[in-house]
Structures are given as structure tokens and as C-alpha cells.
Amino acid sequence: MRVLGLSSGTSTDGIDVAAGQFALDGDLVRLRPLGHRTVPYSAPLREELRSALPPGSTTVETVCRIDTGIGQEFAGAAREAAADLAGGRAELIASHGQTLFHWVEGSSVHGTLQLGQPAWIAEATGLPVVSDLRTADVAAGGQGAPLAAVLDTLLLTGRGGSAAALNIGGIANATVVPSTGVPTAFDTGPGNALMDAAVRRVTEGRTDLDLDGRIAAAGRVDPDLLARLLADPYYGLAPPKSTGLELFGAPYLDAVLDAHTAAHGPVEAPDLLATLVELTARTVADALEPFAVTEVHVSGGGARNPVLSARLAELLHPARSVPAEDLGLDGDAKEAYLFALLGFLTWHGLPGALPSCTGARRATAAGRITPGSGPLRLPEPATIVPRHLEVVGPDW
Q1: Would you give per-residue pLDDT tens digits along the chain (396 residues)?
Q2: Does domain 150-327 have CATH number 3.30.420.40?
Q3: What residue segments make up the domains of the chain, in order of their start?
Q4: Helix, strand or coil for residue 396?
Q5: What are the C-alpha distances in Å from 56 to residues 49, 128, 189?
Q6: 5 in helix, strand or coil?
Q7: Is the separation of the CB atoms in 144 and 103 below 8 Å?
Q8: Has 244 been labeled as part of a binding site?
């Protein structure tokens, strides 16, 4: 079955699209990657979206406009990918949409909202669409995140030791698959989110991250500022746990910097970025330390920051820090392939979340289905829950 996966992360850079050919073989899922791309949001939609993200206030009218706009732009990206990447043979689309709000209080998630009306995608492509991929897990008492644990666990199981997958987007999340026992997953805290906010602050609104680490490399870690940042209660919560821009956004950074400036004076831009890099690296390493992992597979935008990557490797030692590509998937497309996988599992009646990773009472199928142009005909539900995923080459 050829499936398209669509997503956009907390950095709101654009729409990640991946096409994959999937097959079930007992407890094995085979995935043949067919290609991926990133389609930027239009400038007006990106600006409207970023203005509505926490802590921005918004209106129901704006929510409707954004929901429609994201749906339409996802639809355009899906229509082109169905032809170009899937060779006109796609059968299903899975769309994560764009998270607007993740309602967290302490260690509990009460709701989550992803925008991008799937009817636009179904209308543009004629294909059924699986969307709203997090809410079923939240309704079952889970965090609704990190959903990457499903793909990570299938990829890492059976590697002979305790392994972890780490994705550094706006928020960093990790999945730990021990050599024995059940997997665990959690958001470690800010990935690029605070660095992004800091770059915008010191460059008067530029939206690009310090991905090459030049600003951070020129600075030194401010120990007082780092201690203030590390004192946040989130880091003391036990997994499973999740977070987002609702906590670790620009106002959070502003408040911390105001308090630091009052006590110690202002911090220079290079020192601020160096300290935020250290925060991300330190909180990731601290979160993984109890699990004694032997290898960490790293993906996401933060993996392209050499200063962050080098510091992570130091703090994670003796565990090996290796790129996600070692598992057979391009790190930039991993989340889009994840959502394609979730859509494929839902289509076959299989769960799309792991209770040990999200804290849910039971494993739920992910999402709801919007029919395409034809009658909706689901296959007979699969009877074996997959335990492994194999990435195969073009000859398969």
C-alpha cells in the first residue's frame, strides 16, 4: 500500500511530505521510502499561524481561517506528492496537520488541537485521509505524544542493547528501547524552541535558527542563567510527559532573562545562545542518563547544529551518538514517514500509540478517517500487532 505522510512541526517551517510503500508480513512491517520534500507555507499563512501560536491570543474566526488555510496548503502539497513521489499510485494519506495548542497541566494532558481540515486534502486528491492522530490517545488517558515512539520502537527493537531515538525539533523528544522490558518515551524539554526565540530576539525578528551554531560558538555558557533555566519543574517530572510552546516559548525566555538581568545584568547574544545550546544538550543527556543507553540515533533540525551535536556527543558518552540515517530513513523526513506509518496502521485496525510511552490506559488506533472521492472500503483488520519495521530498498 502506498501512503503519503504530511506533517508540520513546532518550528512551523513548512509542510514535510513523504511517500512510502508499506506491507505487513506477520509481526513485520516493511517500508520502502519513495521520496520526500518540504513545501514552505505561504508567507501570509505562516505569519497568521505564528501569531496565533501560544502565547498569542486569537479568535474563533482566525482559528477557522488557519484551519482552512493549512488544509488547503496541505492539499496542494499532497496532490503534487501523490503524482511525483508516489507515481500516481497513492492509496491513503495521513495528515498530522499543525499543532496549535497542546493542553498540559503538570504531568497531565487534557486535550490537543491540530489544525488543517482534512476534507480539503481528500477533495484535492480523491484519497481517504487519516487525521487527528493524537486525540484518541489523550482520551484514553495518554499524553498524545511523542507519537514517534511507535516508529522508533519498531526500528530499534532487537538491536542487542538499550538504544534511544532522539528528535530535536522545536521540542526535543526521545524514545528509549531497552534490551529487556518495555519502551519509554517523553519530551525532554526545549530543542530549538528557545534558541529560535533567542535568535529572533537578538536579530530583531529573523525567523531562521542558528542552525550552523555560529552565534553559539562565539559565546560562553553563563552558569547563573543556565542554573535558572535548569530549575524549571518540568525536568523533574517522571515520564511519560510532554510539553510545547505553551511552556517553552518566547515569553518563557523573556521572563527568565528579565529575572537574570535584574540579578546579574544583561547577557550578550553569543553567551545567550551558548547557554541555550547547553540547556538542550544537558536536559537531553540528563533525561537519558537513567536508562544507560549504548546508542542514540539523532534527527531533527537540531541535529544540523554542529555546536549542539558536539556537546550532545560529549554528554552522552560512552553512548554513541549517531545520525538517524543509520536506521535507513532520512532524518529530515522521519516524522512524515512516522505519520504515513500511523495512517497505514489505522487503516488495518492496528494501534498507533504505545501505552508505556504515552501513559494511556490502552493502545488506541490513531485518528479518524475522511473518505475520498470513492466509497470507503477498509480491509479486514490485521490480527498481529507488528514488533519490527524493516526499511527496504528500491528493488523490493
Answers
A1: 999 999 998 778 899 999 999 999 999 999 999 999 999 999 999 999 989 998 888 999 999 999 999 999 999 999 999 999 999 999 999 999 999 999 999 889 999 999 999 999 999 999 999 999 999 999 999 999 999 999 999 999 988 789 999 999 999 999 999 998 899 999 999 999 999 999 988 887 665 556 568 889 999 999 999 999 999 999 999 999 999 999 999 999 999 999 999 999 999 999 999 999 999 999 999 999 999 999 999 999 899 999 999 999 999 999 999 998 999 999 999 999 999 999 999 999 999 999 999 999 999 999 999 999 999 999 999 999 999 999 999 877
A2: yes
A3: 2-141+331-391, 150-327
A4: coil
A5: 10, 33, 20
A6: strand
A7: no
A8: no
Whether 12 has a binding-site annotation, put simply, is yes
SS3 114: strand
Query: What's the start-to-end Cα distance of the chain, in Å?
Result: 13
What is the CATH number assigned to the segment(s) 2-141+331-391? 3.30.420.40
Cα dist from 337 to 2, 34, 113, 352, whole Å = 12, 10, 21, 13
Q: Rounded distance, CA 147 to CA 60, Å?
A: 28
Please state, as a whole number, how many other Cβ atoms lie within 10 Å of the Cβ of residue 250.
19
For 128, phi then psi, to 5°, come to -65, 150
Local structure of 328: helix, strand or coil? coil
Residues β-bridged to residue 40: 14
Instruction: Indicate if 150-327 has the same CATH topology as 2-141+331-391.
Output: yes
Q: Which residue, chain included where needed, has cell 523528544? A: 173
16 is in an annotated binding site: yes
**How many Å separate Cα 129 from the centre of its chain?**
20
**Burial readout 41-61 (b: 16 or more C-beta within 10 A, e: otherwise):** beeebbebbeebbbeeebeee
- 11 among the known binding-site residues? yes
Q: Which residues pair with 101 in a beta bridge?
A: 113
Is 15 marked as binding a ligand? yes
Task: Return the sign of the alpha-carbon dihedral for residues 76, 338, 249, 200.
Answer: negative
Say if CB 71 and CB 117 are below 8 A apart.
yes
Type of residue at 344:
F
Strand partners, 187: 173
Give the Cβ contact number of residue 339 at 10 Å: 30
Predicted TM-score (pTM) of the model is 0.94
| 14 belongs to an annotated ligand binding site | yes
